[in-house]
Design a protein that fits this description.
3% strand, 2 domains, two-stranded antiparallel sheet, 143 residues
């Protein structure tokens, strides 16, 4: 019997499937985006932002609703919104890709499935319309 190399339990998850590694390097932006998306979706984040807005509104009484008071909230909201949009978009893109890969794997192992469907998101609009029409016909034939 030939000498086999020792089994590495993480070999199958190295690289593509490990969310915080890419080619041996940590994916800092991806990790940050995931954490920010998790935190901003938490109930405490909503409570914190709601409290901040109430304090800001009460501050309007103290500052007599001045232009500086309005400019402050507009600037803070614009900056935070812009940053969070990009971070959440990154997380959503990765989640969508992971879902597409899982569905592609299921399609490829199903007997009788159309292999083109595994990578349907990469097809042209015309090819997608053709596939849609084929599926419509298959559905009507099955009725």
């Amino acid at each position: 019997m030939a000498n086999k190399p020792p089994i590495d339990p993480e070999a199958s998850t190295r690289g593509m499937l490990r969310p915080d590694h890419k080619n041996g390097h940590r994916d800092y932006f991806g990790t940050l985006a995931t954490e920010v998306a998790r935190l901003t979706g938490a109930p405490m984040a909503f409570l914190g932002v709601s409290t901040f807005i109430m304090l800001w509104a009460l501050g309007g009484l103290y500052f007599h609703f001045s232009e500086v008071w309005l400019l402050f909230i507009n600037t803070v909201c614009t900056i935070v919104t812009t940053l969070v949009v990009f971070l959440i978009q990154n997380t959503q893109n990765r989640d969508t890709l992971a879902l597409q890969l899982k569905l592609a794997e299921l399609i490829l192992v199903m007997e009788g499935a159309e292999p083109k469907m595994a990578l349907a998101e990469d097809l042209s609009h015309e090819d997608l319309e053709d596939l849609k029409e084929k599926l419509r016909k298959r559905t009507q034939e099955g009725e």
